[in-house]
Write a structure and sequence with these properties.
It is built from 7 helices and 34 strands.
Length: 602
């Protein structure tokens, strides 16, 4: 079987991570395009023994498991007989839609039929918001592409594979963990498998706007209140002479740019009386970008973010980031969050806590979440899953991480609320790690100079109630951030005695702190897992944090309890990380009120 799968990869041009011909660069702002949704019920077959590249005439067992496989040429893959296969909702994860798949890590095949009618000479792209973790995509039995990475969008040009009338898409989805993957083999959240975000057909002209960026060019403002605004645009083809029009009616900006030989154009303009986006005033401007008959509409805000010594400045004014960390999990119970409603509920809880900032950990969250946070006036830290013990010396691992970083930045580069790109979390120190992460930091800065770079570091030196942060990556980040669990993993009941030595002239964010409690379990403040223990831990921690020089914000761990296979304590954890200030059902724990009161004073 391994030989057959390897053969298929070679036939499809996947060896060494080569991009297949059908894959096209990520298309920005799919929400504003002409699209057809393929969300809804998809048939699925669970392929426990990787038999899917065998005889396509086999029948699935009752409930959708393969049986009676016979060897067959994998390049002849055509439509499986899904007649006996059940269906599940897309977007969604298989772990919470089929109780037999709660712990499942492996391959599941998905199929969806749909009607398609060509629109003149236009092209059709097949777009996936995210598939976790590896996807092989077939349209009408023909292989169109392969993608690795569970949290970023990708799309293929499938025009040549489609036909008038009835069509079908088949996906081989595999969420198995690997030591050389990103994230690596061990991580502390649920490995939800499946097609976890939207699936769309995008109708585009042969030449279309691939991506664009609109933002303040600098922090400068002249005496008349005029600010420089820069606009750049990239087409899918290098067709010099094409003209793209930008309109921002409220700012009276109207600009026509001419595409160069690289398929791109950029211009800097002057805008008067720009209202800057902020948590208190999340102002968004209506924007239109036109190429021929294509009109892309967006809502874009303008703001500046910078550092001055140990201060963090939003729109030139010091700001304290009153934050919370969030996993992309549904508000009530488990399952991958995948809608604006999910995002709005979680972010509303953060607002109720008094937050102006969220850390979207530990991977790029759904675009719905980032946009909803922007509308609600919530600043965002966005992160890629370079988590714990990555394979630092593996060149393919680095390429994987760099692509996820690139895709995250390209998708959200017009979101005013995103102020920090984070390149890692809790990575053990080594020269190989420093080289890997410094390359990522430089790459992020080459793509975007309008945001800050950070990462969640580890504290490696502590003695006699004095903690010292030392990390070679301080040279490459704009904000020094680190996780600390005093009162939980170490020095229980001693948090208030602690002091910190952070020898860098940069703002400091405590990217994680906290401890576990089961909602409704009560006892003495020194009794682990009780709400009183967590409540006291928060009291002692905020007293300690108030003494840190240069503290510019915090994002405690975490908003709500979330599923994790590492958390097995029967009757308490039950496969949940219980560090949430809300339970997995949205019930407030006592520590919620401690943090809320502290944030009121900031």
């Amino acid at each position: 079987m391994k030989r057959l799968i390897t053969s298929l990869c070679c036939l499809c041009g996947l060896a060494g991570g080569t991009v297949v011909a059908n894959e096209v660069p990520q298309v920005a702002n799919v929400m504003a395009r002409r699209t057809t949704s393929l969300n809804g019920a998809w048939n699925y077959i669970v392929d426990v023994q990787e038999e899917g590249y065998y005889d396509y005439r086999m029948k699935p067992m009752r409930g959708g498991f393969f049986m009676n496989a016979k060897p067959q040429r994998p390049e002849d893959l055509i439509e499986y007989d899904f007649d006996l296969a059940p269906a599940m909702q897309v977007p969604g994860d298989w772990n919470t839609q089929d109780e037999r798949l709660f712990f499942y890590e492996g391959t599941v095949w998905f199929k969806r039929s749909f009607e398609w009618h060509p629109n003149g000479t236009n092209r059709t792209l097949l777009y996936f918001g995210a598939v976790n973790y590896e996807a092989h995509v077939y349209v009408n039995g023909k292989f169109v592409g392969h993608h690795v990475g569970g949290f970023t969008p990708f799309n293929f040009d499938v025009t040549e594979q489609l036909k008038e009338g009835e069509n079908f898409v088949i996906l081989k989805v595999d969420n198995k963990r690997h030591a050389e993957a990103v994230p690596t083999q061990i991580f502390d959240w649920w490995n939800y498998g499946g097609i976890t975000r939207d699936v769309l057909l995008i109708d585009v002209a042969p030449t279309y706007v691939e991506n664009y960026r609109l933002r303040l060019a600098s922090t400068e403002i002249d005496k008349r209140g005029t600010r420089p605004v820069t606009f750049s645009v990239k087409l899918n083809k290098a067709e010099a002479g094409q003209q793209v029009t930008l309109d921002v009616p409220e700012l009276k900006l109207h600009q026509v740019v001419t595409i160069d030989n690289e398929g791109a154009a950029s211009v800097t303009m002057k805008a008067k009386k720009v209202q800057l986006w902020s948590p208190e005033n999340p102002k968004l401007y209506q924007v239109e970008i036109r190429l021929g008959e294509e009109v892309i509409k967006d809502e874009i805000g303008f703001r500046t973010i910078e550092t001055r010594g140990k201060q963090l400045l939003l729109n030139g004014q010091p700001i304290f980031l009153k934050g919370i960390s969030i996993h992309e999990e549904k508000p009530n119970g488990g399952g991958r969050a995948n809608s604006t409603d999910d995002a709005h509920t979680l972010l509303s809880w953060a607002k109720e806590l008094g937050c102006n900032f969220v850390r979207l950990a530990h991977y790029p969250h759904n675009e719905y979440a980032v946009r909803e946070a922007e509308r609600m006036g919530i600043l965002v830290w966005s992160e890629i899953p370079v988590y714990w013990t990555i394979a630092w010396t593996n060149s393919d691992t680095y390429k994987n991480a760099e692509r996820q970083l690139t895709d995250m930045i390209l998708r959200d580069q017009n979101r005013a609320n995103v102020i920090i790109w984070s390149i890692a979390n809790e990575t053990p120190h080594s020269p190989e790690r420093d080289q890997f992460l410094s390359r990522l930091a430089k790459h992020a800065r080459s793509l975007d100079t309008s945001r800050l770079i950070s990462m969640a570091m580890e504290v490696t030196s502590a003695s006699n109630f004095k903690n010292r942060l030392q990390d070679n990556m301080h040279e490459y980040v704009d904000v020094v951030s680190f996780n600390q669990y005093i009162g939980w993993y170490r020095d229980v009941n001693d948090a208030a005695k602690m002091s910190w030595d952070i020898p860098y002239d940069k703002p400091v964010i405590i990217s994680e702190f906290g401890g576990g409690a089961k909602y409704g379990l009560h006892g003495e403040k020194n009794q682990r897992w009780t709400e009183e223990f967590q409540e006291n831990l928060y009291r002692e921690n905020v007293a300690m944090l108030d003494k840190i020089d240069g503290l510019a914000g915090t994002s405690p761990w975490i908003l709500k309890d979330f599923r994790s296979p590492r958390r097995v304590l029967n009757g308490v954890q039950d496969y949940y990380n219980r560090k949430g200030l809300f339970s997995d059902r949205g019930e407030k724990k006592k520590a919620f009120y401690v943090l809320k009161e502290w944030y009121k004073q900031k």
